[in-house]
Design brief:
Layout lengths: L1 H27 L5 H13 L3 H9 L5 H19 L3 H24 L20 H18 L5 H24 L5 H34 L1
Length: 216
Amino acid sequence: MKNKSAAILFSIWTAGFLLSIGWVIQIKMEMLPYTDQWTRSIVTLVHGTGTYDFFRAVTELGSSHVLIPIAIAAAIGLMLIYKHWYPGLLLLGGSLFAHLLNSFIKQLVFRERPSISVALNAEGFSFPSGHSMISMVCYGLIAYLLCKKIRSKKIALIIQIGLGTLVFLIGISRFFINVHYLTDIIAGFTLGFALLYIFIRLDKIISDLRRRRKHS
């Protein structure tokens, strides 16, 4: 069952990655990807509605002025739970790396946003979405590190679903408030998930090495 789920997840990620490469090629050719052409009308329909207000509030949970304090507080909490500095370093270091990589890729792709807004934390270039990518890594690592210490599978599942839903809503909020194209968000999720997987694998390797040292 686990192998089947992993295979499906990998297939979805691969599709997202290949699509992202195609979108970058189109963007560099100064073309608007078909996905964005087909979805732009949705933004117009949502503007000025309760849906827009909802996503306007949700997007703040992925903005730097909110996400940084959350990451720091979570890092301190995890260090207290684990009684070690390493989990806090993994969370903060992973989130910072995601931010730096996102900024680097944005400079390479050089895509203009559909709209600029200082109030919505939407300045600079557009592809990939930083809210999608960094939230995936930050909240994903929080969920992973917390669930390692939780014995109840039900509680762990609730945390995973809750934070997973939050990451999705933060990412998609950027589309509905018109500061990112949908392709920016999908690419952000795709890259963010890849980083999250790498950091989780790194943690498992380090944890195994620490166990071997204790028993040797």
